[in-house]
Amino acid sequence: MKKSHRNLIGFIITTNAIAICGFALLFILFTNGWTRYSSGYSESAFQSLPVGMAREAVIRKLGEPLGSHEVTAGVIRWYGPTGAYVDEIGALSVPSGDYTNAAIIQFDLDGQRVLPFNSFSGQSVDEVQAKLGKPIKEEVRRSVVFLHFTESRGDGSYKRRWIGFDPDNKLAEKESYFWRD
Predict the structure, then answer these.
(1) Of the candidates 143, 139, 147, 141, which has an alpha carbon nearest to the alpha carbon of residue 167?
(2) Per-residue pLDDT tens digits for 114-148
(3) Could you give the CA distance from residue 95 to residue 80 in angstroms, rounded to a whole number?
(4) Using an 8 Å Cβ cutoff, are 102 and 68 in contact?
(5) How far is it, in rounded angstroms, from Cα 176 to Cα 181?
(6) Side by side, which strands form the sheet with 67-70?
(7) In the chain, where the domains are located
(8) Does domain 36-71+143-181 have CATH number 3.60.20.10?
(9) Which of 128, 134, 130 is nearest to 106 (CA)?
(10) Nearest to 71 by CA among 37, 3, 117, 13
């Protein structure tokens, strides 16, 4: 092989290695660099928290949260036409673009009556199904408050680590995914 070919191959390999390292660095910056964590937070501690753990014990393990918000406990049902799906963060996607028979509706904890803050307010599960069909997903949410152990530093995209507590201040659920804004 000629020296010029070896030099060209070496140049191509070196250039590709630099490009791969650059992309890896950008990936780390965009998935980790924009996340602010509460003081004392660790991913391993977050992952080890069991359902039913007391709120005070969670805070001792993870530190003081960065924020919180209250929610209403209930049964959430996603409705949509054929081909619709729910992604990992609970967003309803309808590839056809026709959202006529698509909705995310929260019912009371018994799952029988729609809660008052949406267009189907007060209707029964049977009335909603008569209009929208069977749900494509159903989830029971027992949390009434979420503590935020991460938040965005910049553009709104970050690693979301929230913990939901039931009315007895026991851990009911953990939210752990990359939030894109």
Answers:
(1) 143
(2) 998 878 999 999 999 999 999 999 999 999 999 99
(3) 10
(4) no
(5) 15
(6) 67-70, 145-148, 158-165, 171-179
(7) 1-31, 36-71+143-181, 74-141
(8) no
(9) 128
(10) 117
**CA-closest candidate to residue 168, choices 65, 56, 64:** 56
Place of tokens 């929230």: 162
Q: Which long-range contacts (CB under 8 A, 24 or more apart) does 108-114 make?
A: 108/74, 108/75, 109/73, 109/74, 109/75, 109/140, 109/142, 110/75, 111/74, 111/75, 111/77, 111/138, 111/140
Closest C-alpha to 84, from 139, 141, 135: 135
Structure tokens at 36: 């602010």
Residue found by looking up tokens 């991913």 in the block = 43
CA distance 56 to 8: 62
Write out pLDDT tens, residues 56-71: 999 999 999 999 999 9
Please state, in angstroms and rounded to a whole number, the distance separating the CA atoms of residues 79 and 73: 19
Structure tokens of 38? 């509460």
Number of residues that this document lists for the chain: 181
pTM: 0.71
